[in-house]
């Protein structure tokens, strides 16, 4: 290929133009250069879809402008790199690299059926093991959507700490992260031996049971632990024995039951209500 055509090909590929400045030729990009990420990078990002590899690298992914904006606001140090079909609207922290990709690549690294423009890699969040006077305890919550919604509810009602049994779904599961709508960045999530944690507390322990006291009629404290049980089996027997204050949400109409996220919303509303 003649040299002149080869040079033109490079200019077209990298969007360069020539400026003559004091007899020196400068090659300036007139728009952002987009480099395709490597197959190894794609493979690595896809590996973070699985807990095994998230734990090895202590990293997870978030998706979409909303989630990335929440990370920038509440946990900027956790952000490592952003890949997207367009830049973020918010200014990224100085240490964070943005890499432009095409829609095909976005589809390869996203966990979503309809990818949301951007995917970012984050480090696992720093955990605070100091527990406040009121927090939630989760007994084997298995559905990612439920855990994400509980995180979102906790954030809304100002609950800053959740402890969970080790059988509870991973909080860095992409479905949990997305369902949390950014709450994962401002609610501390701690996986513990739940039995041991409840044995060593002096706080009142509330548990939602069918034979419990009507939540709208009983006197509840601003201090305590609120246990929420498994979607299918409720609170396990070995955890149930630690409940000091059984409560229930009365039924006023028809229906079999409330799911755990719905019940959490009702109970947190009552615990948060001025008395």
Task: Outline the structure in words.
This protein is an alpha/beta fold. The chain has three domains: 1-33, no CATH class; 39-123, 60s Ribosomal Protein L30, Chain: A (2-Layer Sandwich); 134-272, SPOUT methyltransferase, trefoil knot domain (Alpha/beta knot, 3-Layer(aba) Sandwich). 32% of the residues lie in helices and 24% in strands. It has ten helices and twelve strands. The strands form three sheets. The chain has a six-stranded parallel beta sheet with strand order 9-8-7-11-10-12. A four-stranded mixed beta sheet has the order 3-6-4-5. Helix 6 (144-156) runs parallel beside helix 7 (174-180) and helix 6 packs parallel to helix 10 (260-272). The longest helix has 13 residues, at 144-156. The protein is elongated and about 60 Å long. Mean pLDDT is 86; it is low at 1-34.
Shape estimate? elongated
What is the number of helical segments per DSSP (H or I, 4+ residues)?
10
Structure class: alpha/beta
The strand order across the widest sheet is 9-8-7-11-10-12
The CATH architecture classification of the largest domain is 3-Layer(aba) Sandwich
Query: Which strand-content bin applies to the residues?
Result: 15-25%
Alpha-carbon Rg, integer: 25 Å
CATH fold type of the largest domain: Alpha/beta knot
The tally of structural domains comes to 3
Q: Average pLDDT value?
A: 86
Distance between the termini: 82 Å
Main sheet record: 6 strands, parallel
Write out the CATH superfamily name of the largest domain: SPOUT methyltransferase, trefoil knot domain
> Helix-strand pattern, N to C?
HEEHHEHEEHEEHEHEHEEHEH
Helix content: 25-40%
Q: How many strands?
A: 12
- Sequence stretches where pLDDT stays below 50 over 5 or more residues: 1-34
Task: State the CATH class of the largest domain.
Answer: Alpha Beta
């Amino acid at each position: 290929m003649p040299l002149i055509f080869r040079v033109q090909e490079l200019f077209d590929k990298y969007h360069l133009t020539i400026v003559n400045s004091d007899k020196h030729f400068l090659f300036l990009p007139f728009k952002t250069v987009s480099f395709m990420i490597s197959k190894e990078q794609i493979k690595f990002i896809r590996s973070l879809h699985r807990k095994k590899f998230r734990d090895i690298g202590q990293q997870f992914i978030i998706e979409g402008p909303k989630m990335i904006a929440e990370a920038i606001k509440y946990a900027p140090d956790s952000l490592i790199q952003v890949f997207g079909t367009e830049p973020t609207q918010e200014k990224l922290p100085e240490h964070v690299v943005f890499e432009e990709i095409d829609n095909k690549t976005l589809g390869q690294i996203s966990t979503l059926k309809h990818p949301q423009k951007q995917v970012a890699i984050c480090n696992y969040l720093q955990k605070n093991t100091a527990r406040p006077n009121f927090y939630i305890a989760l007994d084997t919550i298995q559905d990612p959507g439920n855990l994400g919604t509980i995180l979102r509810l906790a954030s809304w009602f100002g609950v800053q700490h959740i402890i969970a049994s080790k059988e509870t779904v991973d909080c860095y599961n992409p479905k949990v992260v997305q369902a949390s709508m950014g709450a994962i960045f401002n609610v501390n999530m701690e996986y513990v031996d739940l039995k041991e944690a409840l044995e060593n507390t002096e706080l009142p322990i509330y548990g939602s049971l069918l034979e419990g006291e009507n939540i709208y009629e009983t006197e509840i404290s601003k201090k305590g632990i609120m246990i929420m049980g498994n979607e299918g089996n409720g609170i396990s027997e070995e955890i149930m024995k630690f409940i000091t204050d059984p409560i229930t949400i009365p039924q006023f109409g028809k229906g079999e039951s409330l799911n755990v996220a719905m019940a959490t919303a009702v109970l947190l509303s009552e615990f948060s209500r001025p008395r």
